[in-house]
Amino acid sequence: MKYSIVIPARDEEEAIVPTVTGLVDALGAAAVDYEVIVVDDASRDGTAAAVDRIAAANPRVRSHRSHNPPGFGFAVRAGLDIFTGDAVAIVMADGSDSPEDVVAYYRALEEGHECVFGSRFVRGARVSDYPRTKLVLNRIVNTGIRLLFRHGYNDTTNAFKAYRREVIDTAQPLLSNQFNLTVELPLKAVARGHEFTVVPISWTNRAAGSSKLKLQEMGSRYLFIVLYVLLERHLSKGDYRRRQP
Ligand SMILES: Nc1nc2c(ncn2[C@@H]2O[C@H](COP(=O)(O)OP(=O)(O)OP(=O)(O)O)[C@@H](O)[C@H]2O)c(=O)[nH]1
Ligand SMILES: [Mg+2]
Q: Count of domains in the chain?
């Protein structure tokens, strides 16, 4: 099973090298057949050049200038258009996600799971240095989503997740151009009939670079996509559910 890692990156010159190196080391040590695709769009720094230097020595790594307009959702979707693996993990460029967890996701996919959702809020998870306001908002939003979807999972808003290729196909067409893609993917996967497993993960606040998430601009977009998937689930008579294998 080939495993693709898609990393959206905007102005992550400082963080991207340790992030990619950490992934390559962990995946190599675990003997995983992998590719790493870093999707850059409007970076004004040397993000792509830094990735290209790693790529020169490791053909499994490449940078991709997004073929979509700028934006987190657009960038991830560009990566999802071009990955070649049987499954894909979406990993942040800022070093917040742990390479060991990326390998753990692969093992869960190997066991046959269709989606692997990490949670920072279950026994065994570790969270360090989560900004206070963000944490409070996070818990409110994730609890709301859990009440609406009754899927029994409490970290829907975290983008770091893995999916088999069929799930990405089922979720098309993807609509979110911004950070709201982080909830569109898992909610559609669940609403359209895919199975998932939850694993505890560790998360560390970025050590370098700056945050790109502007919560004020995202609130209504998150609400839009949550309501969209909810309406689809309740009103569309199953028209968009996965085709049974
Ligand atoms: N290509 C691309 N990548 C983006 C864009 N916006 C964010 N990213 C990347 O998406 C990932 C998540 O963005 P972050 O800024 O870390 O958002 P966050 O995790 O909510 O904020 P932090 O508190 O800074 O960690 C990072 O790898 C960013 O480089 C964008 O418009 N285009
Ligand atoms: Mg981050």
A: 1
Instruction: Look up the CATH number of the domain holding residue 70.
Output: 3.90.550.10
Dihedrals phi, psi of 131, to nearest 5 degrees:
-60, 135
Residue 207 included in any domain:
yes
How many CB atoms neighbour CB 60 within 10 A?
17
Helix (H) or strand (E) holding 128, with range, is: strand 126-128
Decide if 94 is inside a domain. yes
Dihedral of the CA atoms 48, 54, 58, 64 (nearest 10)?
-10
Which residue from 40, 97, 212, 222 has its CB within 8 A of the most atoms of ligand 1, so it is best to mutate? Answer: 212
Find the domain containing 196 and state its range. Answer: 3-235
Give nearest CA residue, ligand 1 atom 11.
92
Q: Is the pLDDT of residue 24 over 90?
A: yes
- Say yes or no: CB of residue 213 within 6 Å of ligand 1: yes
Residue range 167-205, pLDDT digits in tens = 999 999 999 999 999 999 999 999 999 999 999 999 999
| Collapsed DSSP state (helix, strand, coil) of residue 202 | strand
Q: Is residue 243 part of a domain?
A: no
Q: Which of 5, 65, 67, 72 has the most ligand 1 atoms within 8 A of CB, as the residue to mutate?
A: 72
What pLDDT is stored for residue 212 in this prediction?
77
What are the C-alpha distances in Å from 114 to residues 31, 110, 222? 21, 9, 24
Instruction: Give yes or no for a contact between 198 and 206, defined as CB atoms under 8 angstroms apart.
Output: no
Residue 114 lies in a domain: yes
